Amino acid sequence: MKRIPGKILSLATAVLTLCFFIAVFSASKAERHTVSCKSLAVSILDSADRNFISKNDVTIFMAEYGDYLGQRIDDVNLTRIEKILERRSAIRNCEAYVTDDGVLHVDVTQRIPVIRFQKEDAGFYADRSGFIFPLQNKFTSMVPIMDGNLPLELQPDFKGIPSGEKEKMWVKQVISMVAYMEKSKVWSANISQMTVSKDGNIVLIPRVGKERFVFGSPTSVKEKFGRIAEYYEVIAPLQKNYTSVDVRYAGSIICK
């Protein structure tokens, strides 16, 4: 009896296995081509700590797409669905996909605000990337608020990253400043308000005391908070009548 080399047997087995999977895949693809979309499954992936968007909201937003129920799942335009939903300001990312049982899945990730900018006629959130979007009616995020003479030209329905380089840089610096405050815990707990004065200086207002700390631009953050700490450690115990403490300049704490 003639022996067949093992390598030939292994190759033949691999070819047969490949043919089997191709046949199964082809049959599955042919069957999938006849499956229609029968339902929508929405998942809000990060709704534990904020609820800007609900599952019902997503269902309502999907009306812009048109009739997807009854459409063959291979014909559902998933890219268009993702673009429609990602145009909603509070949605950071959307992933749409269909399964062989005829279910259209939409997974939504919301934006995470880090600061709120409050203008006279409108309020906005900004996330860590500097993306700005209007306040949401359904949920208020408890983040630091900055008001006053903000150097931002924002229409009430604005959403996106500011186009001007100065505005973009200022927002980026403010976000870095807030991140420093949050990381330190001490400053996030003790600064109750941030406002921009008419001359463009950021002014920090503590929860306790009558001092107003003139911080200036949102730069050299660590050094300026270091001077505020020095004020509390060295100057405040000796003199409690100051209402204005200017920490803008290196090596100086100007009290009035």
Structure description:
This protein has 256 residues and is α/β, with parallel strands linked by helices. The chain has two domains: 39-110, Ubiquitin-like (UB roll); 113-255, 3-Layer(aba) Sandwich (Rossmann fold). 32% of the residues lie in helices and 24% in strands. The strands form two sheets. It has a nine-stranded mixed beta sheet. Strands 1-3-2 form a three-stranded mixed beta sheet, with helices on one face. A hairpin with a 4-residue loop joins strand 2 and strand 3. The protein is elongated and about 85 Å long. The model is unreliable at 24-30 (pLDDT under 50).
Strands, total number = 12
Largest sheet features: 9 strands, mixed
- Could you name the CATH topology of the largest domain? Rossmann fold
Beta-strand fraction estimate: 15-25%
Order of helices and strands: HEHHEEEEEEHHEEEHEE
The helicity comes to 25-40%
Classified by CATH, the class of the largest domain is: Alpha Beta
Q: Judging by the overall fold, what is the CATH architecture of the largest domain?
A: 3-Layer(aba) Sandwich
Shape: elongated
Distance between the termini: 107 Å
Helix and strand topology:
Blueprint: H1 6-32, E1 39-44, H2 55-61, H3 78-86, E2 91-98, E3 103-110, E4 113-118, E5 123-127, E6 132-134, E7 145-148, H4 165-184, H5 186-190, E8 191-196, E9 202-206, E10 212-216, H6 221-235, E11 244-246, E12 254-255
Key descriptive features of the protein:
256 residues; alpha/beta; Ubiquitin-like (UB roll); Rossmann fold; 2 domains; 9-stranded mixed sheet
Short characterization:
The protein has helices at about 5-30, 55-60, 80-85, 165-185, 185-190, 220-235; strands spanning about 40-45, 90-100, 105-110, 115-120, 125, 130-135, 145-150, 190-195, 200-205, 210-215, 245, 255. The protein is α/β, with parallel strands linked by helices and about 260 residues long. The chain has six helices and twelve strands.
